[in-house]
Amino acid sequence: xxxxxxxxxxxxxxxxxxxxxxxxxxxxxxxxxxxxxxxxxxxxxxxxxxxxxxxxxxxxxxxxxxxxxxxxxxxxxxxxxxxxxxxxxxxxxxxxxxxxxxxxxxxxxxxxxxxxxxxxxxxxxxxxxxxxxxxxxxxxxxxxxxxxxxxxxxxxxxxxxxxxxxxxxxxxxxxxxxxxxxxxxxxxxxxxxxxxxxxxxxxxxxxxxxxxxxxxxxxxxxxxxxxxxxxxxxxxxxxxxxxxxxxxxxxxxxxxxxxxxxxxxxxxxxxxxxxxxxxxxxxxxxxxxxxxxxxxxxxxxxxxxxxxxxxxxxxxxxxxxxxxxxxxxxxxxxxxxxxxxxxxxxxxxxxxxxxxxxxxxxxxxxxxxxxxxxxxxxxxxxxxxxxxxxxxxxxxxxxxxxxxxxxxxxxxxxxxxxxxxxxxxxxxxxxxxxxxxx
Length: 438
Fold this sequence. Notes:
438 residues; alpha+beta
């Protein structure tokens, strides 16, 4: 039964069209990061970047090297789009995109993480079997069908993303719309819609609409009776996010996933009229069936389990940030902080403050005032810098943070030497003070 469901062949028009759109969007994301100044501000101008802990070797290329890095990455995306040396293109893009994601936290975005996962999934799919240069050069690989699992791997991945995104919004500050009010406050000057976005009724519409959309969009797209209405809602939701929040290619990538929900015949007629439609429903079980099932079984167990880890870590993830990343906790809160760093020379006892602008970009300064893991990393960097000059130091941090517009509270224990404590990704760090109820 499982073989028949997973390995039954269906028309591959949706995957072929998705490959082209995916490659184009990845190319635009790559070159767009250069022309908008994102690469310059995030990867070129800073003296260093805050990489994911444990990947200290992963730092931007020196000089203007990151511009070349992004140009090459855009080239890989074009290989995917045109289906030329497809495996090289998609694996190359995945590695390069993962590299730029894990080497910096100043522009952390769940959508960037999703793009890593989607690219990695695409590396296993026969997306270059039609309307590709690969198939033109090697007609023996050309095919008008694909195993059904190629569709469902995307459906399940997006179901996980949206479901966790919906569940994460079920907390008081989101439900009373205080978060949405804060998010919309910075959009007041938007042309035409700025004032509308400040209205309370709009805050309720967006807050509860976000919960319902994330929680229901995949099931509604799966059923024919609700598919068109769900797709219309999806167009509104994603274009709104694109306009208001400027979240790059993600809204358009999300719309492209609709290709896997509509009937293949519709996709073929709309986009690939010259392509023969496949309707034989053959079941072809490959010799690599077991490795494939094990690989994706482990992958999806990981995807389901990882976003739950914050429940096993002490205190509120909104406050501590422990277990926040890689968990589909998207645009859930407003957080601001102020921090003062003090260095103490252990041999002399002399203490002096650290001027953050001497070490960090403006984006990085915001990070070291709100993110405990980044605060710890900056303390380690200060320790390293002073050790190079023969000084053994302690680093103390006076950090106060406010979440969702509430009063400032002390985040970091000011009596703890942050430079000389260990970081444990699986446990709560006790030098992060507990959140207190109002």
